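Cont'd.
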Amino acid sequence: MPPVNLAEKLATFDEHWQPRVIGTFNHHDLMVVKVKGEFVWHSHAHTDDFFLVLKGRITIRMHDGDGDVTLGAGELFVVPRGVEHCPYAEEEAHLLLIETAGTPNTGDVATAAPRRTI
Amino acid sequence: MPPVNLAEKLATFDEHWQPRVIGTFNHHDLMVVKVKGEFVWHSHAHTDDFFLVLKGRITIRMHDGDGDVTLGAGELFVVPRGVEHCPYAEEEAHLLLIETAGTPNTGDVATAAPRRTI
């Protein structure tokens, strides 16, 4: 894969909660996504969920008793596999996500965003 | 793991080419590192090598015929497993690295930096 400028990739689309694959790494998808508002509660049984905030601020609500985690730009968090979570952003935020290749973003292929590469 | 502020972690040390583990993700180490000057030519047989530049600029020289890749802040690149490479930074640069847990940074346990968690 060629080098990737994350801001340039993010400038190519506007939709929220529709990750774009910008590379692969050890059988994982490297993705950028724009988010705003509340996503759905979900979990991933077979992969941890890597979040790095590139711009803005997000809160990741969790059902595991640890409560909410709020992240600003330059902050990362890993939701462990199997933990129910619900990302939320009051204003638009930009993220780098990493998950096992092909993981449905809602935890369910029936409702997942299509996996698009840019 | 708790949320990680990358700049705060980087502020806790000064050495170059001495990665610090700041979290784990799907059996990978998430690391921050400060680099300056030239590293050693090396390869990793069993893991791709993820580089995201957080500050500054690096060049990754490669022996696979593709030549050099230069990355600035907000740019990422994955060196495929098995590809000989030599990172170089004229001025100090700060990076997020991801590799399979325990991978020696020089490709050789005899010469690798100790794997330290902060």
